Amino acid sequence: TGLGVSYLTNTAQGFFVHESEGGHAGFPTSGNYDLLFKFLQNKLNINQIGTESLVSGQGIRHIIDFLTQNPREFLEILKNDINFFEDIVRIEHEKNPSLSDEQIKLALLGEQTNNLKVDVAALIAKNIENNSKANLAMRLFIVFLGSAAQSVALNGATTGGLFIAGGIASKNEHLFERDDFLRSFHDNWKPNIKDLFKKIPVYIINDYDISFYGCARVAIMTFDGKME
After folding, report:
1. CA separation (Å) from 168 to 194, 211, 227?
2. H runs (alpha helix) in 16-161
3. What is the pLDDT of residues 80-93, one digit of tens each?
4. Which partner for 54 in 59, 64, 151, 192 could form a disulfide, CB atoms 3.0-4.6 Å apart?
5. Following DSSP, what letter does each residue of 164-205 receive, concatenated?
């Protein structure tokens, strides 16, 4: 389903969900990722990088596709980022990983041609310890998620909390144990805005059925006219 964004407000009649197409907004670019962005522009034949093209299952596919096709140029850039230095060293010295780059490329090709029933995003998430590029791809995904989350939080001044739902987050909670997400989420050009971030707690929703609860609630509201 890609990336979905919505806002929930507490009204006198109960909670109200505001519909949104925020998942289709342009990506709030930050960091030195021009090579990746140019790769996406050429691959998808687009001018503007969409948030969904990086922050979703397809985003993980695009990132790993880029890393396996253009490792040297991109790694040279990331060497200057202390946050990724250990991963870069590991990639440069990695030999015969359990999940090879060729297997990743075949999985991408198989998913594109429907000859192989492989979920590449799930494959990458499950093999962060078996392929250093898979590990880096997931770390970059979390960084981009943090940037996208900041935009959502600031647009809505979500002091009631920012809630991250979906299978990727709930099945990979350990990826948030590093500071990648919060570092990206808090990285803002205006210093005094950091006071607002202190008022925005971040939650991961572990119940994957949360969207079904929402659908059921809308159905009840439609037929009963109540918000309970």
Report:
1. 27, 14, 30
2. 34-44, 57-69, 71-78, 85-93, 101-113, 120-126, 132-156
3. 777 877 777 777 67
4. 59
5. E-SHHHHH-GGGGSSSHHHHHHH--SSGGGHHHHTT--EEE-
Q: Which residue has the higher pLDDT, 125 or 92?
A: 125
* Backbone φ, ψ for residue 159 (5° rounding): -70, -15
Q: In whole angstroms, give the CA distance from residue 228 to residue 212.
A: 16
Q: Which residue's entry shows tokens 């140029």? A: 73
Enter the tokens of residue 147. Answer: 């940037």
| Range with the poorest average pLDDT among 18-22, 138-142, 148-152 | 18-22
Read out DSSP for 16-50? EEEP--GGGSBP---SS-HHHHHHHHHHHT-SSPB
68-76: which pairs have CB atoms within 8 A and are 24 or more residues apart?
68/101, 68/104, 68/105, 68/108, 68/133, 69/39, 70/35, 70/39, 71/133, 73/35, 74/35, 74/36
DSSP-derived letter for residue 7 is E
2: left (phi over 0), alpha (psi -120 to 50) or beta: left
- Residue 114: the pLDDT is 65
More confident residue, 26 or 100: 100
More confident site: 37 or 26: 37
Q: Residue 27 and residue 47: Cα distance in Å, rounded?
A: 12
Of 179, 186, 139, the closest CA to residue 162 belongs to 186
Angstrom distance (rounded) from CA 62 to CA 54 = 7
